[in-house]
Structures are given as structure tokens and as C-alpha cells.
Design goal:
The complex is a heterodimer of chains A (about 375) and B (about 550). By secondary structure, chain A is mostly helical. In chain A, the strands form two sheets. In chain A, strands 1-4 form a two-stranded antiparallel sheet. In chain A, strands 2-3 form a two-stranded antiparallel sheet. Chain A has one domain. Chain A is built from 16 helices and four strands. The N terminus and C terminus of chain A are likely disordered. Chain B is α+β, with helices and mostly antiparallel strands and about 550 residues long. In chain B, β3 and β4 form a beta hairpin. The radius of gyration of chain B is 32 Å and the shape is elongated. In chain B, about 65% of the residues lie in helices and about 5% in strands. About 0% of the residues of chain B have low confidence. The chains are: A mainly alpha (about 375), B alpha+beta (about 550). Chains A and B meet through α6, α7, α12, α14 and α16 of A and α14, α19 and α21 of B. Chain B: One of its GO terms (cellular component) is plasma membrane. Chain B: It is a multi-pass membrane protein.
Chain lengths: ~375, ~550
């Protein structure tokens, strides 16, 4: 399994496709998408195999979470940065998309105002705030989906990495960042709908959001986005840049000493990861039909981390597995016995960290060998223990 | 009875007419006759008679007049078991058919009388208004200067033509300076309001009383140019004093909020700084301390003060034991992996929260504040410091000093510092590092419990209590410099104060955001906090 020793003469973008793990991952993903599409479209509604449009949307939501988990795994698994702020990037992408969807409602809102969204009419706002301008254009909104989280990550990362805030400190500061944003977005004065957030969306790019076809389309788009995001991450971690970031993770001081500009590597990977999280958020919003400040809650951000921990750090596919398992469990638990969910989640945090440090991916065959030169534990632990 | 007091009463009696009753102490006979007059008189005459009663110098007069004002002064109509007809009584309990009464003359409770046998002495609103002033005047004659002061303060804004002369005389006689000042102010308010007296404005300048300000405010709009000018000037000086007061109040609130932060964070500073353990369940340990206080009060109903005092050791123990359980069951397996510890303890915090929701209730519980902790301490008339916050400031300083002593003067402290600096070396010197870990974690957790006991007095006790403080606590620790108790103290107090300073113009939420942004920027300059660890220990 010499995937990581693949010759560097290949183009950085094509190399992932020659990796066995990527091939398997993409194969499974696209096969699953095809099966779901087939069962949804071709099966009669009363068949046991029929996949309802509710399920399609639910699966789409899971895929959004999976993309988010991949983004977190990129920074945590390969860069050693435990970001407790990815919920914020996810939500910012979501809000950018939400603003576009809000403007698409037009005069079909409750108050029928052609320009102002309902909550602004309700709050007696005179005109659209400047930062809402442009969101009536799809291309602008889609660019903002990348730029809003990207710029926040750039500014924050620049400040943090320049002054060498790493490890636990960085985790705490990212958590504070998310918390601050949550407080801010809860304010009605911010112009993002306050407590209620943005909701009551009608259509996207001219397609009605409530039709089955649009829902299926969004699900497929999310799957494609996950595939692209996965390949990008794979390309990064397989490139020289990825090797340097792993070096930063395991021995930051030594990497810096050798002459690498550690903070630039960290900043680049962090920003890419934030943008991927933003994309995940933007696809999440039209499928669930709402975005509100609760996505900024520290609990959500830290929950993402446990998906990755459960699936297995520094594998990328592990993050996807973790996200799917935890979120499926959450759907089941909160439906059957809502009170038990926090117990289960809490126990998951404890059990995974204590008994399953390598996650589910660590249980898969072929993992051990690969880990020999890609293990966050052996090298990382030594460093931390001697510190 | 002192001579001055007798003289004062003598004087009062003269002032309040009816020279026939010039005695230091009216006899029961006279009292009976006065009460009889009051009962039989028309409303118009009653005004004069209550003045007579007040002027009688009888020590029971206040009691009678108060009862009269409440409609609880009554006459027994016909002979009963407990009292003959025409006895005057004060109704103590007027529910049901039989009312409990006390003899108006002796003051002793005599038993129950059917309400049909009681004839309440009637009162109307005009009389009630008059009584208020008269009662204050009576209070001005008591021995206790505190009571006189309260009476004098109460008079401000309610002085009228009938009282002013008496009050001036009383003021001249008064020996206590604060009572005198209060009386002077009361009279000055009357003079400014009713007479437009420019000289009286001088007296009110600098007064923080709302009535005085209202009077000056009205006067500043007066047609009399001189009066308006003087009043405006006086208002400016008042404004200045108020500004100082507001600054002092902000500082006080800031310090009290800061000391809460210090309490919440200092246990974290120990476990985080000393052991390198990120305990995300710290907030829930605080919550356990708060619930211990609530539980204590359930065990000792009716004795909130005792329960609170017992909660201090109990809260410490409960949280410390929980801490030991967490350390033994989870943290010891994650040594040297701070990020994993963060995740695992976060899981524990979720479990503890849900446990409280399931076992106790998802709703907030009320913890009673004992009497000696409620109320406030008056610095001046515009500045009151609430006692519970004062106690919390004191409590957190005591806890801080205690921890400082433990870390500096005890063997445990010495061992803790040794293990922090070089674990391997400390072990080779014979220190049981594992035992030190347990003790450190227990200490840090116990202090969290203490924080919970304190917090239960100022905030709701509910499952989310810990969540509200955990991020702030981390900010304090990061800002102050990890592992430095002084840093935690300074950081906590300054963050609390900054927050309070920002709040008036930014609002509570924005102030909090600005503080968080401030810390993020501060870390740029000093990534290791205000007081970074120096030397080899800092290399981690």
C-alpha cells in the first residue's frame, strides 16, 4: 500500500486518482448516489425499496456534514490544529447562500416587499443594508460562499499563526471566535434575521426548492461537491505541501528550523479547509431550508471533531464514515429517545478518545501499514509527552 | 431618661399645642381619654386629636397612630371575656371571625375577640396623609440616631406648611450631624419648592436625593432668574457627583463580575496550568457546586444561611470527588495528549449536564439568599453596593489567598510545582507523581465547586450554568498566562471591569464580543498571556 510513496513526478491533481483509497472512496460514493437516485426515481412509491424525497434530503444533509468533516480532518489530522471554529465557517457559507435564497423570494414573502426580506420589514428597516447588495446575483453569492469563510480564516489564521498560537491555545481561541460570532448573529441589529435566522426559501437558480427533482439535484450536487472536496484534500496531503504540513504537525519547531515558513503552510491549509466548510454550509441551507445562529454554537463545532475522531484522524475517508455514523445515530436517537442523545454523544467522546484513538479507520485492514509513515499518534504523542 | 430627651419632648409637646398635656409621660388616664376623643370625633376633629396624641409625648403614641393608619385601632363595644367595654385594642390578626388583639395601653396580647364586638376607629385618606408626616416627626424624637436619620430622610419631599416650623426647631436641637443635615435638606426642599427661596438652593447643591433633584429641576425652570440660575448651578454640581457615583458603581460591578470570573477560572488555572489538562467539564463541576447549595437548602429548610455556610465545604467535597472520578476514569489514560483530554472531558460535561436534566430537572432551581446576604450597603444616597456581590468579592479573595498559601507553603504545593517543572526528575526524587496529579485535580475541581456555591447566590441554578462560564473562564486563564495564579486574578478582575466599562455604550452582547476580540488581539502581542511562565517550565 505504497500510496504515499507515489512518484512526485505526477501532477499533484492527477495523483489522487491513482491512489487506491481514493478510487475506492469515489467508487463507493458515486455508486451510492446512483443507487439512491435509481431507487428514488424508478421505484414505485409503495415499494419497500423506494427512497422517499425526505430520505434523499436527509442523505444530502449527511453528505454536507461529511464534507465539513473532511475539511476538519484536513486541518486536524494533517496539520495538527484542532479547530473548534469550523462550525463558524460552515455557518458563514450557509448565511451567504441563505442571503441569496432570501433575495430569490422576491415579493412572495409574508409582507410582500419586493426588496426587503420579511424580518427587515418586521423590524421597520428602510432599505437593504450595504452588505446585502449583490446577493440577488447567484454568481456573487456563490463567490461569497467561498470568500466569507475564506477571508475570516485568512485574517484569523494570519493573526494566530504569526504569533505562533498553536495546540490547545488555538483550540480555545477558535472556540471563542465561534462563540463571539454566535452572540453577534443572535442580534437583530446585525441584519441576518437574529434569533430566527433566514428561512422561508422558495427557489434556487429558478428551480422550486419544494419539488422532488430539485431535492434530488441538491443531493447529487452535494455528492459531487464531497467528491471534489475529497480529491482536493487528497491532492493537498499527497503533495509536498502536505508532507510539510504533516511535518508541522509532528515537530513544528524542527520544521521551522529547517527553513520552512510554517505559518504560511498552516495559513494556506486552514483557509482551504474553511472554504470547504463554507461550501458544505451553502449546500446544507437549501436542503434543510433554514440557517440560524445555532450553527455557531460551540457544541456543534466540537461535535464535528468527534465525527472525525470516531472515523479516524488523518485519513479523510474516516471523517466521512464518522460523520455518517454519528449523524445517522443522532437521527435515530433524537427520534426514539431524545433525552438519551446527549448521554450517547458524551459517551462517544469519552470512549473514542480513550479506547479508539485511531477511530474506525484504525480497525480497517491495511491501515496499520499505511500508518507507519502517516501516524498522528506515534510521532505526535512523543512530542507532546516530552514537552 | 436623659435631660436632653426630656427637654426635647417637652419642646415637642409645646410645639404641637395642647399645653395641658405637658408631661414627660402621659398617664394611662390621659391616654384613654385621648383615644376616646379620637374614636368619637368627627373626621374634621380627628386631625386635631392625632396631633394631640403625637404631642402627648407618650411612648405608645406611635403604635396607636400606626394602628390607626392601618385601621387596626379599635374599641371594644361591650364586655367580653378578655376585656371590658371601652377598652382600646390594637388588632394583631384580622382574619376569620375572631380577631387577636392587644391592649392598646399595656401593649400585651390579650386574646381573641369576635369582630362583631370590635368597633374600628374610622380613618380617611386625608387623615392618612397627615399621619405620615406626624409619624415621621414622632420618629425624630427617638433615642436611636439611626431611626431618627431614617425618619429625617423620609421627610424629604413631604414637608408641608404645618410641619415646617416644628421641624426647624427640631433641627436646631438636633445633635447628630447627619440627622441635622437630612432635616436641613428636607426643609430646604420645602423652601425651594414652595417659597422659591434662593438661599435654600445652596443647601441642596450636591444632594443626591431624588426629591432634592426634582425640586431643583423645577426651580431651574422658574421665572425668577436668580432662582433659576442658582438651581442650574446646583444641578451641575449634583451631576458631577452622580458621575463619580456611576463610575464607582461601574467599578464595583466590574470587580464583582471579575471576582466571579476569578472564582470560576482559578480552578481551571490549576488543572490547566499545572497538569496541562484542558478540563472542559470544569463548568459542570461549578454546576455541581451550585446544585450542592440547592440540595443543602432542601435538607435544611428554613435555614438558608446555615445551609449556605455548610455548602462551602460540601460543595468543595462533591466537586472534588467528581474531579477525582474524572481523573481516574478518563484523564489518566490521556496523559500528554491535551487535545484528546479536551474532547473526552467535553463528553463528560455533556453527560453531567444531561444527568442533571434527567435526575433533577431541566428547569432552573431557586436558591434562597439568606437575609444577611441580601440588601445593600449604602455608601452615599446615590450609591448602594449590593451585599451579595460584596460577599462574593470577599469570598473569591479568600479562596485566592487560600490557594496561594497551598501552592506556596504546603508540601503538596511544593510537589505540584516540582512535577510541573520536570515530571521525570520529580519522580526520581521520590515524589509520587500520580498521587500529585490526583490531588491537583481534586483541588482544582473543589475550587470549581466553591465557585458554584458562590454563583448560586447571583444566578439561576440550572443545567446550563457551567456552559455560561466555561468560555469566559478559559479566556481568563489564557489572558492571565497559564499556570499563574496572580495572572488569573489580574486577568479576571480586569476582564470583568473592561466588560462593565464597555457595556453602557456597546450593550451587553457587543461588550462581550469586543472583550473576546480584544483577547484574540492581545494574544498577538503576548501569546503566553499577561504573566507568562519563565524558564524551563515555559518550553512546553
Amino acid at each position: 500500500m505504497s500510496t504515499t510513496n507515489t512518484s512526485y513526478s505526477q501532477s499533484w491533481l492527477t495523483r489522487p486518482f491513482t491512489e487506491r483509497s481514493t478510487q475506492i472512496f469515489l467508487g463507493v460514493l458515486f455508486a451510492a448516489m446512483a443507487v439512491v437516485t435509481f431507487l428514488h426515481v424508478a421505484m414505485p412509491q409503495d415499494s419497500a425499496l423506494y427512497v422517499s424525497s425526505y430520505t434523499v434530503t436527509l442523505l444530502g444533509k449527511y453528505l454536507c456534514y461529511a464534507l465539513l468533516a473532511v475539511a476538519v480532518d484536513l486541518v486536524w489530522g494533517y496539520l495538527g490544529i484542532l479547530s473548534l471554529g469550523h462550525g463558524a465557517f460552515f455557518a458563514l457559507g450557509g448565511y451567504a447562500m441563505g442571503m441569496y435564497l432570501m433575495r430569490q423570494i422576491g415579493d412572495r414573502g409574508v409582507y410582500g416587499d419586493p426588496v426587503l426580506p420579511d424580518f427587515m420589514v418586521f423590524l421597520n428597516w428602510e432599505s437593504l443594508p450595504w452588505y446585502w447588495h449583490g446577493f440577488d446575483m447567484a454568481w456573487f453569492a456563490f463567490v461569497m460562499v467561498l470568500l466569507a469563510p475564506g477571508i475570516l480564516a485568512l485574517v484569523f489564521g494570519f493573526l494566530a499563526f504569526r504569533s505562533r498560537v498553536t495546540g490547545v491555545y488555538l483550540s480555545i481561541i477558535t472556540q471563542a471566535l465561534t462563540f463571539a460570532l454566535m452572540l453577534a448573529f443572535f442580534r437583530n441589529e446585525m441584519g441576518f434575521g437574529g434569533n430566527n435566522g433566514l428561512t422561508d426559501f422558495k427557489d434556487i437558480l429558478g428551480f422550486d426548492l419544494r419539488t422532488d427533482a430539485t431535492r434530488l439535484g441538491l443531493f447529487l450536487a452535494t455528492g459531487v461537491a464531497l467528491a471534489i472536496g475529497y480529491v482536493i484534500c487528497r491532492a493537498i496531503v499527497g503533495s509536498k505541501l502536505g508532507r510539510v504540513s504533516v511535518a508541522c504537525r509532528d515537530a513544528e519547531a524542527r520544521t521551522r528550523f529547517i527553513g520552512y515558513r510554517v505559518e504560511r503552510v498552516q495559513l494556506f491549509v486552514f483557509v482551504v479547509s474553511a472554504m470547504l466548510a463554507g461550501v458544505a454550509g451553502s449546500l446544507y441551507v437549501p436542503q434543510v431550508g433554514i440557517i440560524n445562529p445555532s450553527e455557531f454554537s460551540p457544541l456543534f463545532s466540537i461535535e464535528i471533531v468527534v465525527w472525525v475522531a470516531l472515523g479516524g484522524r488523518a485519513t479523510l475517508y474516516g471523517a466521512v464514515i464518522g460523520a455518517l455514523i454519528v449523524n445517522y445515530a443522532k437521527t435515530v436517537f433524537t427520534g426514539v429517545m431524545p433525552d438519551a442523545w446527549l448521554f450517547a454523544l458524551g459517551a462517544l467522546f469519552v470512549l473514542v478518545t480513550v479506547f479508539l484513538p485511531k477511530g474506525i479507520a484504525g480497525l480497517l485492514p491495511g491501515f496499520r501499514k499505511k500508518q507507519q509513515d502517516d501516524d498522528p499518534k506515534t510521532t505526535g504523542t512523543e512530542r507532546e509527552a516530552t514537552a | 431618661m436623659s435631660i436632653t430627651r426630656s427637654l426635647k419632648q417637652l419642646l415637642m409637646a409645646c410645639l404641637l399645642t395642647l399645653p395641658a398635656l405637658v408631661h414627660a409621660q402621659a398617664s394611662d388616664e390621659q391616654a384613654q381619654s385621648l383615644l376616646k376623643q379620637l374614636a368619637d370625633a368627627s373626621y374634621a376633629e380627628k386631625g386635631r386629636i392625632i396631633n394631640d396624641i403625637a404631642g402627648s409625648g407618650d411612648e405608645r403614641a406611635r403604635q396607636w397612630l400606626e394602628a390607626f393608619a392601618d385601621g387596626k385601632l379599635a374599641r371594644v363595644e361591650e364586655d367580653t371575656d378578655v376585656a371590658p367595654a371601652d377598652t382600646f385594642v390594637i388588632v394583631l390578626e384580622n382574619r376569620g371571625r375572631d380577631w387577636t388583639v392587644a391592649d392598646a395601653l399595656t401593649g400585651d396580647e390579650i386574646g381573641e375577640i369576635s369582630r362583631r364586638n370590635l368597633d374600628s376607629i374610622r380613618i380617611n385618606n386625608a387623615l392618612r396623609g397627615e399621619l405620615d408626616g406626624i409619624l415621621s416627626v414622632i420618629d425624630l424624637k427617638v433615642d436611636d440616631p439611626e431611626q431618627r436619620l431614617a425618619a429625617a430622610r423620609g421627610l424629604r419631599g413631604s414637608v408641608d406648611d404645618a410641619m415646617v416650623e416644628n421641624l426647624s426647631e427640631l433641627m436646631a436641637e438636633e445633635e447628630n450631624n447627619s440627622v441635622k443635615a437630612a432635616l436641613e435638606e428636607a426643609i430646604a426642599i420645602y423652601r425651594v419648592e414652595e417659597l422659591g427661596d434662593v438661599d435654600a438652593v445652596e443647601t441642596l447643591s450636591g444632594s443626591l436625593n431624588s426629591q432634592a433633584r426634582a425640586a431643583l429641576n423645577a426651580a431651574s425652570r422658574s421665572d425668577d432668574a436668580a432662582l433659576a440660575k442658582a438651581a442650574k448651578e446646583a444641578m451641575v454640581s449634583i451631576e458631577q457627583k452622580l458621575k463619580m457615583n456611576r463610575a464607582a458603581e461601574t467599578l464595583y460591578f466590574g470587580l464583582s463580575l471579575g471576582s466571579v470570573l476569578v472564582l470560576a477560572a482559578i480552578g481551571l488555572a490549576i488543572t490547566f496550568g499545572v497538569m496541562g489538562v484542558i478540563n472542559m467539564a470544569h463548568g459542570e463541576l461549578i454546576m455541581l457546586g451550585a446544585y450542592t447549595t440547592w440540595g443543602m437548602q432542601q435538607l435544611l429548610p428554613g435555614q438558608p444561611g446555615l445551609a449556605l455556610i455548610l455548602s462551602i465545604p460540601a460543595g468543595f467535597l462533591v466537586a472534588a470527588l467528581a474531579g477525582i472520578a474524572i481523573e481516574r476514569s478518563v484523564i489518566q489514560f490521556l496523559k500528554g495528549r491535551p487535545l484528546e483530554t479536551l474532547l473526552a472531558t467535553f463528553g463528560i460535561s455533556l453527560i453531567l449536564q444531561q444527568l442533571v436534566r434527567t435526575v433533577i430537572s431541566p428547569l432552573n432551581r431557586t436558591v434562597i439568599t439568606p437575609e444577611w446576604m441580601s440588601g445593600s450597603f449604602m455608601v452615599n444616597e446615590g450609591l448602594f453596593l449590593t451585599l451579595n456581590r460584596l460577599y462574593i468579592i470577599g469570598f473569591s479573595l479568600v479562596v485566592f489567598a487560600g490557594l496561594m498559601l497551598i501552592m506556596r507553603k504546603t508540601r503538596l504545593g511544593l510537589e505540584v510545582r516540582a512535577v510541573t517543572q520536570n515530571r521525570a526528575m520529580a519522580r526520581s526524587m521520590g515524589i509520587k507523581a500520580t498521587r500529585v496529579d490526583i490531588m491537583t485535580f481534586a483541588l482544582g475541581s473543589g475550587v470549581a465547586g466553591l465557585a458554584g456555591v458562590a454563583l448560586s447566590q447571583i444566578t439561576n441554578v440550572g443545567p446550563n450554568l457551567g456552559q455560561n462560564y466555561i468560555i469566559d473562564s478559559f479566556m481568563v486563564v489564557v489572558f492571565g498566562g497559564v499556570g499563574n495564579l496572580w495572572g488569573t486574578l489580574v486577568a479576571g478582575l480586569s476582564l470583568g471591569t473592561i466588560n462593565q466599562l464597555l457595556e453602557p455604550w456597546a450593550g451587553a452582547v457587543l461588550a462581550k464580543i469586543l472583550v473576546l476580540v480584544f483577547i484574540i488581539l492581545f494574544i498577538q502581542k503576548r501569546p503566553r498571556g499577561l504573566f507568562p511562565q519563565k524558564g524551563r517550565a515555559a518550553e512546553g
